[in-house]
Each structure stands twice: as C-alpha cells, then as structure tokens.
UniProtKB/TrEMBL annotation:
EC number: 3.1.3.16
First-level EC class: hydrolase
Domain PPM-type phosphatase: 139-461
Keyword Secreted: no
Name of the protein this chain belongs to: protein-serine/threonine phosphatase
Species assigned in the record: Trapa natans
Cofactor: Mn(2+)
Lipoprotein keyword on record: no
Species classification: Eukaryota, Viridiplantae, Streptophyta, Embryophyta, Tracheophyta
Length: 475
C-alpha cells in the first residue's frame, strides 16, 4: 500500500461555504437549526464546496456523528420535471441548495398518501389528510426528523436522521447519462422506504411466531422493505420514461446506481445496485493498528467475474453480450435503476443511428435486483464509509479506511469525509500534472477526464468516538 498523507491543504476559496446544525436531546426545542444570520451565499457556484456541520447524539447511542462530502465533475442539464413537476417544484430546490440539517416538514407527497392494508398483506396508496403527531410511527414522524441533501454533477445525496427514535437514513444516487434517474430517486425512494417501514412496524406489534423472534422478524422485514421500495421505484421510473420517451428519447439511456444505508438502533441495513460501496472499519484500534476494511456491498460491473458469468449464462443465444469491456459495448454496470434501452426492446427502438443497439437479442441486460444485507454494530466497529465509485477510482477500501482513521486520530473534531475529498482532488491533480488550483479552473464536463462525480458519507459509530463534530460538503 502506498504511503498516505493526511495534511495536504486545499485552496481556501474551495472550502469557504459553511452552515451549522447541532442536536441536543435534553433541550430538544432549543436545538440550533443553522446560522440564520450568515451572509454566506445560499447557491452553489462551480468549484465551491458547501458544508453542513452536524453532531448526532441519538437516544440509542448506535451512531455519534455524520460526515459527508461531494465533488462535481459533470455538467448536467436542468431538471426536466419528469414526475409532472412534483420532483422539480417541491423536492429538488431544497436539495440543490442545502443550508443545513433542518426539520423535515410535512412531505408534499406523503401528506397526500397513506398505506392501506388489504388482508394484512398487500399495500396500496390512497389520498389522505396529513397525520397528527400521535398518529405517526417512529419511522414516519416528520416532527422528529432532520434532513439534508445535495447535488454534485449527476450524483444526488440524502441524509435523514431522527435523534428521538434512533435511526439514520443515507442515500447516494450516482446518476449516469443524465440526472433524471438520480433526481427521481431523491424524490421517491426515501419516502417509499419510510412508508413500508411504517407498515412493518405496525405488523411487528402483532407478531406471533413460535419459530423466530420479533427481532429476527423485524430485520427480515426491513430487508423486504428496501427491496420492495427499489422494485417500486424501477417500475414507476420506467413507466414515466415510456410515457415521455417520444418527446425525450434520451430518457431511455438514463440510469442511476443506488446505495442506501439505514441504521436503526444497533443494526445497519445496506442496499446497493451498481458500483457504489459501503465499507465498514472494524477492529485494530487496541494495538494501535488501523481498523481493517470490510466491504459490505457487491460490485455490480462486468469486471466482477460473478456478474460477468451471470450475464453470459442468461444470454446463451447472444454471441457478444459483453464486448469492449461493457454490456453490449455500452455500459460497465450490470445492475442499475432505469437505463431502459438495455432492458426493453421498445425503448432501444427509440434511439437513432449508432446510439441504438442493433442486436439486442434477449433483454434485459441490466438487472434491477439489488444486493441487501444487515449487520449488527459491535464495540469493535468504528465507522462506515459510503461512497460512489469515483472515490474508489483513486483509493482502495483499505486506503479509504486508513485515511479516515489517521485523520480522526490527529483531528478528533475534524471532518473525515471532506478530508477524503481533499485527498482525492490532490491525487487527481498530481495524476494530471496540475496543481489543485489549476484542476479547479477546468470547467465541469471537461473535468470528467480527470475525476468522476464523487459523493462520500462517513458515519461514526457509538458515543465513545473521538469526533464530536462533522460536516457534509458539496461541490
């Protein structure tokens, strides 16, 4: 492993936008929700990093703080309002221009929907009036939740926490060929998961089984909720693409990887589609050695031999399902939301000329079945790192964990996610023969030659962690 530095400075102008939030359960009503008097501009400009500071002290004590950072490389078009304006008008403005972790107000979509049980199993959504606080479950209580989010190129990121009920939701949506799929996920997936968890919580109260414990029933149910939400998101997104593809045929090529982490009490649940990763840092601290890195996600690309063999086996009549290192010569990821032209012939037929796949023998070639897992946090676990693939273009899993570990040893109140971004920018500049200042003069879009959009979240575990403050950054 190469030697890693932890003290490389970044140009001050790149890190000059900051907002704050602190949570205090003992005086909940007096919690600060940011610096209202700040004269820092609200909107992002190219090359500026926006930060959130957040200390998360939960009643259950399973996580202590959250740090996140994002870096743009791609220039993207304005939101297309694919959901009849709901996403563009009601959700994304607050995500594109975040100020701080803030109270999650009554959701514009959840306030119009409720879950209806049919025979205790099937679920439908129907209009309702907004619930009162007493009707809310711990997973569907907007009064007690704080939220933050952001956009970096075609990446989207969300973080929602409830100090009172001890849960944290994080989502990283790494869009490609456009931002529509990532935008859709930012507006749909969290609320869909929360609705399913609300239903699961109701069912777990009625739990009676001689063969398994209530905790096992609940853990299995959470995994089911995550899978169901992704399935619903895929179906809804492709339906909207089909409705609009005659006017916008480019929609059939737009997709997104998905990485979700849900920390509830002492259990963390992970879901991924694509090549974003979740890394656990565990063990090693007692003897002075750095923690070891354990990857909690699968890597869904043609470079993964298991995925490659599955593709070949599923398409026995296609002589070239993979060529030029890509599915049908087009895409490296083997699982993703959207990218309909590699899933349905009618969507492929909307493309013209060389964009169309001429021999789409047996679709789908890209799958939407996610990988899911759960892990019970132990005293030996130190932190999780969630990252889009741009982070791992530059660092191995072990290097990521080492960078975070060394940083928090020297900077116990510092920002490990922003530090990872700083190190990545330094490495990208060195690889290109530039200074970091010169790298940031390259316009978005052209900068993609030197690094991808990168989104990172670091979740510090337990109440004994050295880090007392952290931030979420966005460039």
């Amino acid at each position: 492993m190469r030697e890693l530095s932890i003290d490389v400075p970044m140009p001050a102008r790149e890190l000059n936008v900051s907002f704050g939030y602190q949570c205090n359960l003992t005086s909940h009503s007096n919690s600060s929700l940011g610096d209202e008097d700040s004269d820092v501009p609200d909107l992002l400009e190219d090359g500026i990093v926006m930060t959130w500071h957040s200390e998360l002290k939960t009643r259950s004590g399973s996580f202590s703080c959250l740090s996140g950072a994002a870096l743009s490389a791609n220039a993207t078009l304005a939101n297309t309002k694919i959901c009849n304006g709901i996403i563009g008008d009601e959700i994304l403005p607050s995500i594109d221009s975040p100020k701080s972790f803030r109270r999650l107000s009554s959701s514009p979509s959840l306030s119009r929907l409720e879950i209806d049980n049919i025979d205790g199993e099937e679920k439908t959504l129907k209009p309702w009036s907004a619930p009162t606080r007493t009707e809310s479950s711990s997973f569907l209580n907007a009064v007690d939740a704080q939220t933050a989010g952001g956009a970096a190129g075609e990446d989207r990121v969300q973080a929602v926490c409830s100090e009172e009920n001890g849960w944290l939701f994080c989502g990283i949506y790494d869009g490609f060929n456009g931002r529509d799929a990532a935008d859709f996920l930012a507006g749909f997936l969290y609320e869909s998961i929360m609705c399913s968890l609300h239903n699961l919580e109701w069912r777990s109260k009625e739990f009676q089984s001689p063969n398994s414990s209530e905790a096992e029933f609940f853990r299995s149910g959470v995994i089911g909720c995550l899978n169901d939400a992704v399935s619903q998101a895929e179906s809804k997104f492709l339906h909207m693409v089909e409705q609009e593809m005659e006017d916008r045929p480019d929609l059939v090529s737009i997709g997104s990887c998905v990485l979700v982490a849900l920390l509830h009490m002492n259990d963390i649940y992970i879901l991924n589609l694509g090549d974003s990763r979740a890394i656990l840092a565990t063990g090693g601290a007692r003897d002075g050695a750095p923690p070891k890195a354990i990857q909690l996600t699968e890597t869904h690309t043609v470079d993964n031999q298991l995925e490659r063999r599955k593709i070949v086996a599923d398409h026995p009549n296609d002589p070239r399902p993979i060529y030029n290192g890509r599915l049908k010569g087009k895409l490296k990821v083997t699982r993703a939301l959207g990218v309909g032209y590699l899933k349905e012939r009618k969507m492929n037929d909307m493309l013209m000329g060389i964009l169309r796949i001429q021999n789409l023998c047996s679709p789908p070639y890209v799958y939407s079945q996610p990988f899911t897992m759960s892990h019970t946090v132990s005293e030996n676990d130190h932190f999780f790192v969630l990252g889009s693939d741009g982070l791992f273009d530059f660092f191995t899993n072990d290097e990521v964990v080492q960078l975070v570990h060394l940083f928090i040893q020297k900077n116990p109140s510092g920002d490990p996610a922003k530090h990872l971004i700083e190190q990545l920018v330094q490495q990208a500049a060195e690889n290109a023969g530039f200074s970091t200042e010169e790298l940031f003069t390259i316009p978005l879009g052209r900068r993609r030659k030197y690094h991808d959009d990168v989104t990172v979240i670091v979740i510090m575990l337990g109440n004994k962690q050295q880090t007392s403050t952290a931030s979420t950054s966005l460039s």
